[in-house]
Amino acid sequence: GLERGAKNQFSTFSNFITTINQKKEGIGNRNSPTQLVIPNIKNVRDLPPICLDVRQKQRVSIDTLPQELKAPIPTEPSLPIRTKTVKDFQDDVEKAKSSGDWKAVHDFYSTTFDSFLEINAAFKKDTNSPFNTIEDSGINAKFVNVVYDALLNTPQDVQKSVLKGIINGLLQEWKGPRTKDDLRAYCILLQNPQFSNTSTYVIYAHLLRQIAALTEADHHFLVHWSKKISQRRFKQLVDRLLQFISLRLFPAKPEEFPPMVKCTWWIPSATKVLALFNAANSLISPPIISYTDFYNSTLDHIDLMEEYHNWQCYGNSHRFSFCQYPFIISIAAKKVIIQRDSEQQMISIARQSLVDKVSRRQKPDMNMLFLNVKVRRTYLVSDSLDELARKRGDLKKKLKVTFVGEAGLDMGGLTKEWFLLLIRQIFHPDYGMFTYHKDSHCHWFSSFKCDNYSEFRLVGALMGLAVYNSITLDIRFPPCCYKKLLSPPIVPCDHNTLVGICDVTLDDLFQIMPELAHGLSELLSYEGNVEEDFYSTFQVFQEEFGVIKSYNLKPNGDKIPVTNQNRKEYVQLYVDFLLNKSIYKQFAAFYYGFHSVCASYALLLLRPEEVEILVCGSPELDMSALQRSTQYEGYQKTDLTIRYFWDVVLGFSLDLQKKLLHFATGSDRVPVGGMADLNFKISKSETSTNWLPVAHTCFNQLCLPPYKNRKELKQKLIIGISNAEGFGLE
After folding, report:
1. 343 and 255 in one domain?
2. Does a structural domain hold residue 28?
3. Using an 8 Å Cβ cutoff, are 571 and 524 in contact?
4. Which of 442, 616, 698, 703 is catalytic?
5. Residue 471 has pLDDT above 50, yes or no
């Protein structure tokens, strides 16, 4: 990194670079750095969402331009001729290291970074080719990487010359639209590792500001060029931007930066550039890095509700909010927003109930503040369905469950037990609502037609209530289900609008019916004559209650043969039929049930994967974290039995650890807040050591007899957690 002694020189750059603002204003503020321009361009491919406009109450995809832009492309100025190769540069560096004479290297860096033209002259693969397409940036990535890898190991005067050159490039007066050479220069400068140092943040901020202010057409090129960057360097770019945002929000040394009031544009500019990388990441399957790598956990410590309310009130206007860019907000922070939004809705509805009672001169009853569900165990599903249908206006109140004939007081345990029992019964194969696919270990909606789909609405409402009341459910739906659940994320006002319909692919089918998906994949890659060898038409068959029924995938499909030419269309229509059309009524009821409870603009912030985590928890286990947060009753954490227990559990395979978690809590997944949110407790069981451990899943409690040695504890624990379902031990 840069030495501390260099900061004084960079502070002069701080003063010098403020003239960038004046020069931009002199041009007439052609491009506002605080707002991305989103033109309405038809018949083009969509980029992934970069920001949200709450005024439209739906996800907004950034329209992108076709590869050949209709607007005239500005003329590229002629580039200086530079002949230095990667090997020449490496030889110069080696000679400098051995001799101590860095002049040749210094001259290269100071010349190369002196202007955008020089950057292109050095790093453009062919200076005579325009490289005006999104497919190829024309950047010699290997040369760029070698030059940057060597930069931080050069003397300070070399590093300073690079920063001076960057300032010169940023200070140039721009007239007219950017050229592709300018975009290439921006792409190269963003990768400069010097910008990891806080002493360069003033320069970095102005670079980000100019990139954020580019037109949508220019962003289109940067997005597609960025997806070609290697995974390691792509991750470094993202981490550098996240660090910049974090340190601007909570600087370790506030005196290092200008006052916040003078640089309010720093964070919006960085976030908008980060949005371009997020869009590039989403264009590739599988993505370059995980979507969680874009999370900034620093935002967990700001006033999220103020951000949320600003977003609701001002939408995509000039007022910046992180909620416009939900990819940067962690799932834990989103859960906080959803919970507080839920609490506010609960309080509002409860207050309205109280006011209504008082206005009618009726005595207030505390029960009116809750969603009180009373059910009989023997009629669990029907009673629950009746209660939720009858109390549809109370669904956003705090849930309290009572089992008829039992004296239990619901302090959270009865609610969780109600969820567990209801889910277990509804998803049982004999019930017929869902089909369990053993190959994929997940449930999917039964396509059987029926007169009443209210029970599917009940399942949706259950999922909504679970999210609303912070209950983790043991449900195994494929990712496609949550994608459909957010299609659209806000219930449309027009009841004739289709809901739960989304674009589905063969990959989605693989996650549910891998064997069928494999067969369709074989059809697509078959090299013979499809029509003669398969003898199929655009018609499919399904068995319903012992009767085979046929369905046409398109009009007169039974008369249209599947051929080598139309097999892609056949596969797409077949997948769409299985995952959308054949279960439309079932899923629509499920969709409306979920949104009857969770209707909130906060859902616009969520990805399908995040909805799954909110409903079912995270599959990533950290038993060491569970050990640190466990509470004890009758034991001390230093007791021999407890030490044996954790020694055994930490040595378990992942499969056994999941079984233990399922045995003790009713689910093998972890809440969004981590293991600490489980409130896991180990209680001493005053029984014979011949007994097996017992669990109270409603309270996440494990009752452990005082086993005398490690071997006995391990044996009894494995037997208990491996035989706790079906015809084993209940």
Report:
1. no
2. no
3. yes
4. 698
5. yes
